[in-house]
User: Which sequence fits this backbone?
């Protein structure tokens, strides 16, 4: 023990101790500064705001900052195609150079959706179903039927569609509804002497009847001035009223 204590007091021990301490300090400093260089401590940039930009604009910003990017796509109705709708990391996040930024782009091609069964459902039920399938409610029209505000028919692009048919998401669906007046009867108007447009107005707006078959008599020199010379049905002593929505056939002539 005495020899060890005596060794601790020697110049050789002090020199070795100092050398060891200096070696440890140097190694720590080398490791510290190497790590700072490797991780670029304190160096980086803020992620720019990319949401709402066109994809090409977002790419220009990222490339100018030396950032990489990866792209995913979704379809969102009512959003312009090719627009950035999400980014990760979010704007103003501090990142290192060459960091990958993940972009979500709104695709231009709408995926298809199966048309639901809306026939004989109420307007409210049909609208909820249509929207849950990624479709939209378009125009509504009415036709005589005992049911009120119940879907009788669905159309897209002027064509009748049935449950299970595929349509692009976001498509507008027009519905034909019952007016609840299918059993009511109205008086047959007299159309004699009216032009086709006047007869159509009288039928639809005045009597809630439909224009049926249009035929012509003689040479028609001017279809706008041709007038109704016959109609079927025509009000008689035995037939005064018909059901709402009944078609009325007319014959036009320039005589």
Assistant:
């Amino acid at each position: 023990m005495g020899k060890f204590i005596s060794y601790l007091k020697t110049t050789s021990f002090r020199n070795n101790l100092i050398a060891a301490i200096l070696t440890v300090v140097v190694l720590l400093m080398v490791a510290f500064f190497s790590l700072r260089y490797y991780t670029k401590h304190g160096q980086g940039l803020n992620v720019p705001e990319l949401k709402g930009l066109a994809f090409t604009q977002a790419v220009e910003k990222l490339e100018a900052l030396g950032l990489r990017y990866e792209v995913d796509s979704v379809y969102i109705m009512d959003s312009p195609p090719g627009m950035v709708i999400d980014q990760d990391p979010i704007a103003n996040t501090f990142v290192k150079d060459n960091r990958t930024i993940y972009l979500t782009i709104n695709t231009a091609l709408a995926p298809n959706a199966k048309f639901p069964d809306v026939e004989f459902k109420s307007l409210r039920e049909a609208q909820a179903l249509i929207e849950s399938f990624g479709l939209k409610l378009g125009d509504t029209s009415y036709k005589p039927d005992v049911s009120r505000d119940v879907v009788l028919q669905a159309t897209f692009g002027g064509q009748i569609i049935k449950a299970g048919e595929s349509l692009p998401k976001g498509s507008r669906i027009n519905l034909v509804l019952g007016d609840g007046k299918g059993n009511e009867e109205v008086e047959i108007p007299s159309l004699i002497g009216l032009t086709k447009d006047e007869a159509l107005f009288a039928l639809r707006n005045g009597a809630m009847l439909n224009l049926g078959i249009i035929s012509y008599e003689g040479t028609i020199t001017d279809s706008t001035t041709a007038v109704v010379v016959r109609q079927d049905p025509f009000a008689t002593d035995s037939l005064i009223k018909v059901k709402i929505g009944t078609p009325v056939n007319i014959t036009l002539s320039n005589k």
Notes: The longest strand covers residues 148-156. Residues 190 and 234 are 7 Å apart (CA to CA).
